[in-house]
Design a protein that fits this description.
about 85% helix, rod-shaped
Length: about 230
């Protein structure tokens, strides 16, 4: 007699524990794909915003005009623009307090930009740890379901007088579905994590480079203002 070994039949006839593991893995897989698409669109938006601001920054617009625009467009600004705004804000606050020492001015602006950089990177890296967890844990969860299913299958064979491949195959196949679902959840998460980690590293390098370039511009401005003051 032919047995129905379709995936749906195997899932419906699996033990309650194995079905629970499968359900958990399906939920994790759906959540993982949702996180992947959110992160994909978020990184594209961040890179686009950074490129737009960088073009504006090097277009010859004055720092005061850029700062005014960043202040007006606080909600729609990108990571690089917010870092620039935090550095300019601190720099202007120190100037308003009649501080003219170049080292103090540059130290304050740099600290403000580094703090803003850390906040931006925390935001950019959000959900990345979830993908890493899915990629590392899902295969083991699936393996647990497989081991439990095989134990359950062999326990059921104890009462049979004659054990054949036909009597063993369904139980083992049901159990192996859990491992397959675990791998289905893990593989996209691992691939996405590696790609996003590489993209985030590039964003971080670009932001750090901008901080250095902007610091150099500020330092030249401080030097020029000090020279004109004297």
């Amino acid at each position: 007699m032919n047995q129905d070994l379709s995936i749906l039949h195997l899932i419906l006839n699996a033990s309650l524990v194995v079905q629970s593991v499968m359900l958990l893995l399906v939920v994790v897989s759906v959540s993982s794909w949702a996180a992947i698409f959110r992160k994909l669109f978020a990184l594209r938006r961040i890179k686009g915003q950074n490129e737009t601001f960088e073009r504006e920054f090097w277009s010859g617009t004055t720092l005061n005009d850029l700062f005014a625009a960043a202040t007006r467009n606080a909600r729609g600004s990108g990571a690089m623009e917010r870092i620039f705004a935090s550095g300019m804000r601190e720099y202007q606050k120190l100037r308003e307090r009649r501080i003219s020492d170049a080292a103090t001015l540059m130290d304050g602006a740099r600290r403000a930009m580094r703090a803003s950089f850390q906040r931006e990177m925390d935001e950019v890296e959000s959900n990345l740890s979830f993908l890493a967890s899915v990629g590392s844990v899902s295969p083991y969860v699936g393996l647990f379901g497989t081991v439990w299913g095989i134990m359950h299958a062999f326990t059921g064979l104890a009462n049979l007088q004659q054990v054949t491949l036909a009597s063993v195959a369904p139980g083992i196949a049901e159990a192996l579905v859990a491992t397959a679902i675990g791998l289905f959840a893990a593989i996209p998460a691992v691939v996405a994590y590696n790609r996003f980690a590489r993209d985030i590293d590039r964003i971080a390098i670009r932001l750090e480079t901008f901080i250095e370039e902007f610091s150099n511009i500020l330092q030249r401005n401080v030097g020029a203002q000090s020279a004109s003051g004297h």
